[in-house]
UniProtKB/TrEMBL annotation, chain A:
Pfam families: ABC_tran. This is Cell division ATP-binding protein FtsE. GO terms for biological process: cell division. GO terms for molecular function: ATP binding. Belongs to the ABC transporter superfamily. It comes from Sphingomonas jejuensis. NCBIfam families: FtsE. Homodimer. Forms a membrane-associated complex with FtsX. It comes from the Bacteria. SUPFAM superfamilies: P-loop containing nucleoside triphosphate hydrolases. InterPro entries: AAA+_ATPase, ABC_transporter-like_ATP-bd, ABC_transporter-like_CS, ABC_transpr_LolD-like, Cell_div_FtsE, MacB-like_ATP-bd, P-loop_NTPase. Coiled coil: none annotated.
Automatic annotation (TrEMBL), chain B:
Keywords: Cell cycle, Cell division, Cell membrane, Membrane, Transmembrane, Transmembrane helix. InterPro entries: ABC3_permease_C, FtsX. This is Cell division transport system permease protein. Pfam families: FtsX (PF02687). The chain crosses the membrane at residues 29-51, 167-191, 223-246, 266-289.
Length: 234, 297
């Protein structure tokens, strides 16, 4: 399998402080299922930001889908971002839009016609159990419902790479399992999945998943206990 | 928040409102544009009216002269006037010749002298319109037949008035331009504010793969709508004031002021003011939003 993500000696520094991420070198295979774990403050969210191109690194090279995103012109980023689905830790739903319209956003941005959008969104809302909440604004949704809307929005356009930051943090175990099955199903269809989580129970549900452990801004496998450590590039 | 009916109708007319809140009608931006358009319509109407006055003055000045026969003896005056009129009519440079009736001359001084003017030796007047360069020829032709004739060139006393009117007309045009610039500057500030207010949404849209143009279009719509509604309101208010002023001007019965009331073509020009305001607001908003977005990743 070809690598869909490549990090080479990537460093990230905010302002004049120390490096949040240091010498990150790793690669993710296309079609792989990965968990990203590590203690709070280890740099997981910063690494995810680099992956969904919300941030450029201070140094190093990042290739997504074989393209160097560090030097990529701004005008080419939207097309690249449409290949990536993101579930943000804080959901980042658009407050003035209904659940339906939030989920529909990626399809509308891609120029899909309204009928096709409606069919896809209803199917997706049904999948995450929010059909009866389609017209609700985010402020009237519970934390778990907002999280499901965020997940539906991230996956509706069938992204090639799905990045999720603590996607099951606000849902009950049953819904967490359903969502994980959704991710699993997408992965089976070829989507590369990377989930940042602290939930060891969740990680146990996907036997073929590989785990990246991030500590103090570096990818590591300190005790050798993690399954399938990532292939680290020399 | 339940959108107000007018907001809903407008949103329907413009299509889906998009990820930004539905625009509120009669918000501060619409009110500001209304005021700007109102002032522009007044300044524009003044400029157009003054330009019309200037043209009228130009026409009046171009070769217009009044011959005054000032002989004190009524018989001599009448004879000189008749001879002068006959001579002038034969001049090839004379485009029009009109003897001002004595009764009209008397009525001209009547407001100041009352019936006393009837006993005074008032000059005989002949209005003449000459082709370019006709005044020296007229002077030479009159000298032998009407020695008491004085030639009053209108350009001599209307020139300064015309220069003042032209300057005021230019000033009105400059005011319209300044109001346009102020409107654009205000829209730039408002667009930056709107972008700051919705920065979170804009970031999400970017991360979902929205292009700068797609995002800018959302803001453009809002500003275009505000500008259009404000522009129409300001235009209607301006026209109402102009119509009211027009009535007052008619009551004054001044030829000079009368030309400041807009003609049909002037009105059509004023009609472009709200459209221009909408265009300025939309383009300013678009350029501002795109410039700010380019600084984001």
């Amino acid at each position: 399998m070809a690598d869909i993500v490549q990090f080479e000696n990537v460093g990230l520094r905010y302002g004049a402080g120390g490096e949040t991420l240091s010498d990150l070198s790793l690669s993710l295979e296309a079609g792989g299922f990965y968990f990203l774990t590590g203690p709070s403050g280890a740099g997981k969210t910063s690494m995810l930001k680099l992956l969904y191109v919300a941030q450029r690194p201070s140094r190093g090279v990042i290739r997504l889908f074989g393209e160097d995103v560090v030097t990529m012109p701004r005008a080419e980023l939207p097309a690249l971002r449409r290949r990536i689905g993101v579930v943000f830790q804080d959901f980042r739903l658009v407050p003035h839009l209904s659940a339906f319209d939030n989920v529909a956003l990626p399809l509308r941005l891609a120029g899909m016609d309204d009928d096709a959008v409606a069919a896809s969104v209803h199917e997706m809302l049904d999948w995450v159990g929010l059909t009866d909440r389609a017209a609700a604004r985010p402020a009237t949704l519970s934390g778990g419902e907002q999280q499901r809307v965020a997940i539906a929005r991230a996956v509706i356009a069938r992204p090639e790479l799905l990045i999720a930051d603590e996607p099951t943090g606000n849902v009950d175990p049953e819904m967490a399992n359903r969502l994980l099955h959704l991710f699993d199903g997408l992965n089976a269809l070829g989507t590369t999945v990377l989930i940042a989580t602290h939930d060891l129970h969740l990680m146990g549900h996907v036997p073929r998943a590989r785990t990246l452990r991030l500590a103090r801004g570096r990818v590591s496998d300190p005790v050798g206990a993690l399954r399938h450590p990532p292939r680290v590039r020399a | 928040m339940i959108p107000r009916p007018l907001d809903r109708i407008v949103a329907r007319l413009l299509g889906r409102a998009g990820p930004l809140p539905q625009p509120r009608i009669a918000g501060p931006m619409a009110a500001l544009i209304a005021i700007m358009v109102f002032l522009s319509v007044l300044a524009g109407a003044a400029g157009l009216g003054l330009a019309g006055t200037s043209s009228a003055l130009d026409r009046q000045m171009a070769g217009r002269v009044t011959i005054q026969i000032v002989a004190a003896d009524p018989a001599v005056r009448a004879a000189e006037a008749a001879a002068a009129e006959a001579v002038v009519r034969r001049l090839p440079q004379a485009l029009s010749v009109a003897r001002v009736p004595d009764s009209e001359v008397a009525s001209l001084v009547q407001p100041w002298l009352g019936t006393l003017g009837n006993d005074l030796p008032l000059p005989a007047l002949i209005d003449v319109e000459l082709a370019d360069g006709g005044v020296p020829t007229l002077r030479r032709a009159l000298r032998p037949v009407a020695p008491s004739a004085l030639i009053d060139e209108h350009a001599r006393w209307l020139g300064p008035v015309n220069r003042l009117v032209s300057a005021l007309s230019g000033l009105a045009g400059a005011l319209v331009l300044l109001i346009g610039i102020a409107t654009a500057a205000t829209v730039v500030l408002a667009a930056r504010g709107a972008l700051d207010t919705h920065r979170g949404t804009v970031e999400v849209l970017h991360l979902l793969g929205a292009t700068d143009r797609q995002i800018a279009r959302l803001f453009e719509r809002r500003f275009a709508l505000d500008a259009l509604l404000g522009g129409v309101a300001g235009f209607l208010a301006g026209v109402a004031v102009l119509l009211m002023l027009g009535r007052l001007v008619v009551a004054v019965r001044s030829d000079l002021l009368g030309t400041t009331v807009s003609s049909g073509s002037g009105f059509a020009l004023l009609l472009t003011v709200p459209l221009a305001a909408a265009l300025v607001a939309t383009v300013s908003a678009r350029m501002t939003i795109l410039r700010v977005l380019r600084r984001m990743l």
